[in-house]
Amino acid sequence: MTVPIPEAAIATIIAAGRRLDDAGWVPATAGNISVSLPDGRIAITRSGRHKGALVAGDVMAVDGDGRPEVQGDRPSYETLLHCGIYRRFRDAGAVVHGHSIANTVLSRAAGGSLTLAGYELLKAFPGGPTHDVSVAVPVLDNDQDIPRLQRALDARWAGADTIPPGYLIRGHGAYLWGPDMDAALARMEALEFMLACELEERRLR
Ligand SMILES: CSCCC(=O)C(=O)COP(=O)(O)O
Ligand SMILES: [Zn+2]
Fold it and tell me: By C-alpha distance, which of 99, 46, 98 is closest to 77?
């Protein structure tokens, strides 16, 4: 018998999907969304669903290693990236992933990281009490082999002094996390705002 997913967790994921879709960051069936549950499981979107039109049945549970509770159920193709975040950052309670124009274009042009400096909105990231800081957002090469991509992330995090609560995958999208969904979404909105500014500045140059 499977343990039901708390209704509040399902409602949180459905509402987050609508918000990401309203912003235009989850075209087609792009993006995925999860929350960690008090019993250690992860509630996550099923693969291939439109994130702006999620219903309760589009959310399922996996264990900390991404294994579905019900054999044959298909969670997000990128589930192991969510698991990697919850495993490494014990205070993470929610993870959001989207494919925006800005994160796609800028990650394609970037090297191994993308530095954001001088933005007031950097305050939305932890440890940034003033706008007078810079944050180097890691950029990983895209990889259809998700376990290999997660290993690359683990290696990057292991060698880092400070780790922002997000990263970009080249030509693919952005992952952000926070202690809860409100925080994860706020960080995504802040990052996307700054990336949109970067794009605009490049157009003006
Ligand atoms: C059509 S988007 C390609 C897959 C992807 O990058 C994504 O974010 C959605 O995958 P999922 O399996 O979570 O639906
Ligand atoms: Zn994706």
Answer: 46
